[in-house]
Design brief:
With 206 residues, the chain is mainly α. The radius of gyration is 25 Å and the shape is flat. Helices cover 71% and strands 0% of the residues. It has ten helices and no strands. The longest helix has 32 residues.
Length: 206
């Protein structure tokens, strides 16, 4: 493939993938350490985008392979499907990059324990939410069961059962809010409450 054709292929594929993920040019530019106008020219194929460093930078930012960008394969070889997944990874990376925290040890420990509890609870939420959506979101198969249990309608049954599936998350985040508010008044009490919640999520010792 001639250089001009290769530049066009790389640019076209980079643009289509960026748009597929809902990303703007400044986002990709920030990831690559260049300007947005440079990304625009890479996508247009008006400047050399075939260099190894440029190709690898584009591939990393767009979560595709260099081979795909060059048109050598039609397989992305990626596990990123949308912008939200990229944003989640960006936030998690930013959090990790801030460690260790620039604060007193006890304050740092409290902050990390709170983050750990949030992540553990979110993991539980995802499982419960998936189950709730699958079994109770507009499920018409529960009509007979709803009548047997004395609900006024299948809709009411689904709504109540859906909420029941995720109530633990609502309660957990309410508890976390209370703990954060308590910290300003009584740090030790707040740390103890947080520690107790974390210990409840630890597997039983053998």
């Amino acid at each position: 493939m001639k250089d001009k054709e290769l530049r066009k292929t790389i640019g076209s594929r980079a643009k289509s993938r960026r748009q597929e993920l809902g990303l703007n040019q400044p986002y990709v530019a920030e990831k690559m350490g260049v300007t947005a106008s440079t990304i625009q020219r890479y996508e247009a194929g008006t400047i050399d985008n075939t260099k190894k460093m440029t190709l690898e930078g584009l591939a990393d930012a767009l979560h595709v392979s260099v081979e795909w960008l060059k048109g050598e394969t039609d397989e992305y070889e990626t596990d990123i499907t949308d912008k939200r997944e990229l944003q989640i990874r960006d936030v998690m990376t930013s959090i990790l990059n801030k460690l260790p925290y620039d604060m007193e040890q006890s304050e740092s420990d409290f902050s990390k324990d709170l983050l750990l509890l949030m992540l553990q609870e979110y993991e539980l939420f995802v499982d419960s939410f998936q189950s709730a959506c699958k079994n109770f979101k507009g499920n018409a198969d529960n009509k007979m069961l709803a009548q047997t249990m004395g609900f006024e309608s299948n809709k009411e049954y689904n709504e109540i059962m859906f909420l029941r599936e995720i109530t633990h998350t609502i309660n957990a985040f309410n508890d976390m809010g209370d703990i954060v508010r308590l910290y300003s008044k009584n740090p030790e009490a707040a740390k103890n409450r947080l520690s107790n919640l974390l210990s409840e999520k630890e597997p039983d010792s053998v």
